[in-house]
Write a structure and sequence with these properties.
Elements: H1 21-25, E1 43-44, H2 64-77, E2 82-84, H3 89-106, E3 111-116, E4 119-124, E5 129-134, H4 145-150, E6 156-163, E7 166-173, H5 182-185, H6 190-193, H7 205-214, E8 222-231, H8 242-245, H9 257-260, E9 261-272, E10 279-289, H10 290-293, H11 297-309, H12 312-317, H13 324-333
Antiparallel strand pairs: 1-8, 2-7, 3-4, 4-5, 6-7, 6-10, 8-9, 9-10
Helix pairs in contact: 11-13
Length: 338
Amino acid sequence: MRPQLKPVETFRDDFTYSNSPEAIARFPFPFPEDEYMYSVNLEPATSGEPGSVFEHVFDVDEHYLSEVEERRIVLEQDPGRCRVLPHMITAEWDTLEMIMTHFARDYPHLFALEQDGDEWTWENKALGIRDTFTFGDADTLPYGPFEYITRQAQGDFNILDQRDGDLFMDGGMITCPADWSLTFDLGMSFKQWHGPVPLAHQIGVFDRALKYLLNIQVDRPARRLNWTMTMHPRMDTSPEMYHRWGSDRAKLTAENAGELAHLRVELQLLARLPRSNGMLFGIRTYLISLQDLATNPAWARRMHNVLKTLPPEIADYKGMSRTREPMIAWLESTGLTG
């Protein structure tokens, strides 16, 4: 697929972000059943149907320019959203190489990479960037290698160090998190950063997931979907910005939920990094309003059933204790829920 990039839209203030019919059709609706419970829903990240979000390892879509601009704004206000511990420099270069090679191969109309030994030339036609640098020499780039390439990619990224039979979040570019903070989680182990998640620990989800992840091999990435709800199409719902978005939940009613409430889906990628033996943890975020979601009646019915049967502990963890009933009421008002 050759994505047609839309002009820059906003994820704040006037919220001009919207999905085209094509973007709605390829939205990664995350519910295979009418009830939701945590599970180890990992699968091999093999190439999916052409045009789908699963076609390529890194999905570039119509919102590319908007998401890159949103990242620039967040980093300008808070440069600490990109942090990498010093021992992860090899993983930084691994990440740069992985993203550049996949982008250039899968989207040649947008990106190009020329390699002459360690002398590389990277061209990002969408952003008007053309840089020649020496692979392995960070002084030849305007930013560190991880920050340089993730400033040009959609979605958040963590780089995980594997040691002592565990994974540690030792670096990240996090400008569109769903209510978590890199500043707080940096350096934590896999189970530590998942500590607040209810129910999943008791049923062994994280034990099984960690065992799977520790055995991921180079060129054999895995993926999974995660979800929550967000008011407005707001990418940055970090704790640092809670004063900007926290009150949005109180504004939701059964009348405005179709426009205000957005299903937020994360397409998470886990890929082994070849030189460092670290792990790239990508979190690609997709947003869709309830009114756009309801253009697919099957999605509307399933969304309604998932919300109605969601365990209270999960609803509370996802910040939906106050917003769930207005969203259910709006979906029922469409006449699509049966």
